[in-house]
Amino acid sequence: MSAEEKNVFLNVTVTDPLKQSDSFGSYIIYKVNTSTNSQEYSFSQFSVLRRYSDFVWLHDQLNFFHPGTIVPPLPEKQSVGRFTPEFVESRRRGIEKFMSRVTKHSILKETAVLAAFLHADDAGFTQCKEQYKQDRAIAAGSMSNWLESKLTSLSSGSASLEKTAADLKFEEVMQYITQLETQMQGVSKHTSSLVKQNRAMANALFEFGQAFTWLGQSEGDGLGAALTQVGNTADQLSVLATENAEAEAVHLEEPLEEYVRLLASVKAALKRRQEKKSVHLNAIADLDSKQNAYNKLLGAPGKEEQATSKLVQVERCREQVDKSKLEYEEVSENLLVEFERFKLEKAEDIKQILLNYVRLQIEFNKKSEQAWKDLIPHLKNISSVNSSMSRVADALLASGPGGMDQQQQPEFVSSTAKFREEDMPPPVPIHAQQGGSNFRESDMEEDEEDEAGV
Q: What DSSP element (H or E) covers 28?
């Protein structure tokens, strides 16, 4: 790659999802924005409107015409709740990630189908779809001959190839990807549980704060103010926890889910290699069958015309064997390169995912710590009010009945002037002082009646 080619960039963003409707129902369209300095495009910046099914079409074409590549995954379809703002935005991010991976792929970014997808207007894009439909029909027609030949191979004996070093390598790759997929699914599952629990914690903090706010309002003194502040702090922490949980969903949960889908794409690429191998084996089996039929006719009296016809078939089958072998080897070679690229990108991707998560936790915990620290002075104020009341009580007890002289009185008055009337306990009714807490007026009446009776 030359220095000039290295400086070529192709950046794509997906923005402005908008709900539309037609006679078939409702759907979401997305604005696909391209910025590039590539000479393959007439403009450096341009935009088109595409719906989700258009991205699915692009994904299918890349898979079909480039079997030796790992085509990035699209976000999965969803039938329920697909028009909610949360789902639409999540899908937009997933589609943008798909486009980012495609435009950074050394092979896929150069494809004609991608160029048409990015810049063709509605009429041109419809025409492009029709052309690719015809191209796929032609390719599928040629492949159908080998599907038919499979029946022949089953009846005449299937061909086989000795395992090569590449075959052993791909077996190792498949085993590694299968194990990695299982482990990554477990990580993704528990990450989703973590995000769900953090959302629940945010809601619990809100309810916790609300309860303390109500408790503080019922007090109405210094303690009440402090309790209300506890409620405000919990509410603030609830907002922080909610924001953090949503950030975790975007920067941890979604990337891990996308990586599970990416591993499925790797397995699909390996499967396409196996399909190419099967086509090659069927071609060999078909050639053997035609060759045997030709050998039987060769030299047989009166069978010259049939032998000539079989020879033509043999030559055609030999061409197909050579073609299928070349395609199989190209796919195998490209896929080995793709797997090495996947391993390098995987290490970098996971590193960035985890770094983003760690930074989120650091920032969240810093803000949480500061919120708790800001609460401490309000709580300490409760202790200073109680200690002031204790000092007044101690002064009263030390003076004794009538023991406070005129010199002590001004100090006492100045110390008690700090308290409001409502801070003092309510006066105890006289009858409660005389008769205790269980004394009732009805009891007094009964006693008077008893005295009168005596």
A: strand 25-36
Neighbouring-strand partners of residue 51: 29
Those residues with Cβ within 8 angstroms of residue 205's Cβ, 6 or more apart along the chain or in another chain = 234, 235, 237, 238, 241
C-alpha to C-alpha distance for 143 and 31, rounded to whole angstroms: 37
Query: Would you say 48 and 118 are in contact if contact means Cβ atoms under 8 Å apart?
Result: yes
> Which residues have a Cβ under 8 Å from the Cβ of 83 and sit 6 or more positions away?
19, 26, 28
* Integer-rounded Cα radius of gyration of the chain: 40
Q: Give me the residue label for tokens 């989703």.
A: 192
- What pLDDT, in 10s, does the model give residues 417-439? 444 444 444 544 434 444 444 44
**pTM of the prediction?**
0.78
Copy the structure tokens of residue 103: 């435009």
Q: Side chain identity at 193, as an amino acid letter?
A: S
Neighbours of 3 (CB within 10 A): 6
74 phi and psi angles, rounded to 5 deg:
-95, 155
- CB contact set of 154 (below 8 Å; sequence gap of 6+): none
Closest CA to 281 of 169, 168, 150: 150
Are the CB atoms for 28 and 49 separated by under 8 Å?
no
d(CA 75, CA 365): 32
20 forms beta bridges with 27
Task: Let me know: does 69 contact 334? Beta carbons within 8 Å.
Answer: yes
User: Using CA atoms, how far apart are residues 72 and 64, in angstroms rounded to an integer?
Assistant: 13
CA 155 to chain centre: 49
| Run of H or E residues at 14 | strand 10-22
| Sign of the torsion angle spanned by Cα atoms 322, 137, 114, 276 | negative
Task: Tell me the pLDDT tens digit for each residue of 199-216.
Answer: 999 999 999 999 999 999
Tokens in use for 347? 């290490």
Q: What are phi and psi of 112, to 5 degrees?
A: -70, -35
CA 417, CA 434: separation in Å to the nearest integer?
30
Question: What number of H helices and E strands is found in the chain?
Answer: 12, 3
Cβ count within 10 A of residue 314? 20
Give the DSSP letter of residue 425: P
Q: Please answer whether residues 66 and 111 qualify as being in contact, where contact means their C-beta atoms are separated by less than 8 angstroms.
A: yes
pLDDT of 319 higher than 70: yes
Amino acid at 225: A
Rounded to whole angstroms, the Cα distance separating 228 from 235 reads 11
Q: List Cβ neighbours of 218 (8 Å cut-off, separation of 6 or more).
A: 224
